[in-house]
Amino acid sequence: MPDLDDPDYARLAWGRFRRILGWMALLALACAIGALAALYLWVGTLHLHMAIATFLGMFGTVLMGGALMGLVFLSSGSGHDETVDRINRAYDPGREDERSS
After folding, report:
1. Are 58 and 32 in contact (CB under 8 A)?
2. How many helices (H) and strands (E) would you count in the chain?
3. Half-sphere exposure (CA, 13 Å, Cβ side) for 21?
4. pLDDT digits (tens, 9 = 90+) for 50-90
């Protein structure tokens, strides 16, 4: 089972995460520019602070979503989820009952 304790696998996994994050940054930039363009077409000229807030809000929201999704992929792909399940099995006895039903 791959694990982030292995330096070679950790380098690969974190590289994959950074690549996902890079693509999400480009998507976030496109979404933020698209939101500004849509507001400009709908409302007209925006105040500077409104444009900055809109840009940063859209960019930050999309980038945060991408970062969290990338961490979910990293956790699942690196075996961390299975490790936590194995450790918590003794502390969560009801889980076995749910699987059997």
Report:
1. yes
2. 4, 0
3. 14
4. 999 999 999 999 999 999 999 888 887 777 777 777 777 77
Could you identify the residue written with the tokens 């105040």? 47
Is the dihedral angle over the CA atoms 96, 97, 98, 101 positive or is it negative?
positive
CB 10 within 8 A of CB 4: yes
Contacts of 2 (CB under 8 A, 6+ apart): 9, 13, 77, 78, 79
Question: Is the pTM for the entire model greater than 0.90?
Answer: no
What is the Cα–Cα distance from 68 to 54, expressed in whole angstroms?
21
CA-to-CA dists, residue 36 to 2, 42, 50, 62, 64, angstroms = 43, 10, 10, 14, 19
